[in-house]
Each structure stands twice: as C-alpha cells, then as structure tokens.
Design brief:
The protein is α+β, with helices and mostly antiparallel strands and 135 residues long. It has two domains: 60 residues, no CATH class; 55 residues, 2-Layer Sandwich (Double Stranded RNA Binding Domain), CATH 3.30.160. The chain contains three helices and nine strands. The chain has a three-stranded antiparallel β-sheet with strand order 2-1-6. β8 and β9 form a beta hairpin. α1 packs parallel to α3 and α2 runs parallel beside α3. It is elongated and about 50 Å long. The two termini are 24 Å apart.
Amino acid sequence: MIDIDVARRLQAAGLPWEPADGDWFVIDNEELRDEHFMLSSMVIERGVGRAGGELFRFNGTTEWALDSVEQHEALWIPRADQLLTALGAAFRALARGADGTFTVSFGPAGAEPREVRAPAAEDALAGALLVHLTD
C-alpha cells in the first residue's frame, strides 16, 4: 500500500477517483489517518449525502461509531492495478532488480523512457504516475 503522503500528492496532481468496491481509503484527519478502510457493499457502501455529494456509509458495528463521511473527507489509496490503469499508454515496463527494488519505465511513445525506482512495486508505480501527472 502506498504512503498517505504520496496519495495526497497524487490527489493534488489531479488523479481522479471514481469510488468502487475494493478501493482503499483513509479519513485524512489526525485521529483516523492511520486507519485504512476498504469500500465494500457489505461494510462500507457508497451513497448520496444531503447536499447531493458522494458519501461513504458505514454499516453495522464493524466500523465503531462512524455512520458516514463525505467523499471529499476521504483520501484514496490506489492499488497497483489502479496505478497501472492511470498510467495508461505511458506505462512501458515494471521490473524487479537483483537488489529487490522495482523500476517502472514510462513515457510517451517514441520518446526516451523515464524511470522511477522504489522498494515496492506500488511505490514505483505511484512515483511514476506522480511524475507523469506533474510534468
């Protein structure tokens, strides 16, 4: 799972989020930032709030006293497959080095590829997407 600071930077860079079952998120405030939640129609379902915005409804007692939160209060933590999808045609390759690190090659067709290296595949993909979105 990518770091919350990287997720914030991806959000600020304009990575769109269409919430779906299986998505991970945090409620980005001091008290709940370390709790990771997964959208699931069994536990946390999508709904529409009073003002018409998306909200996440917590069912039963599974998630203690939370009833719901507005989507804008949640910070999406994209998975590796979602990061790959967001990179789209810019993605060239993901390779694991002999030292155990992962390298993502990316860039437009016909151009020299750029690379981002990180200890985990998700981190390398998130770094490449961040560079891709902010260039």
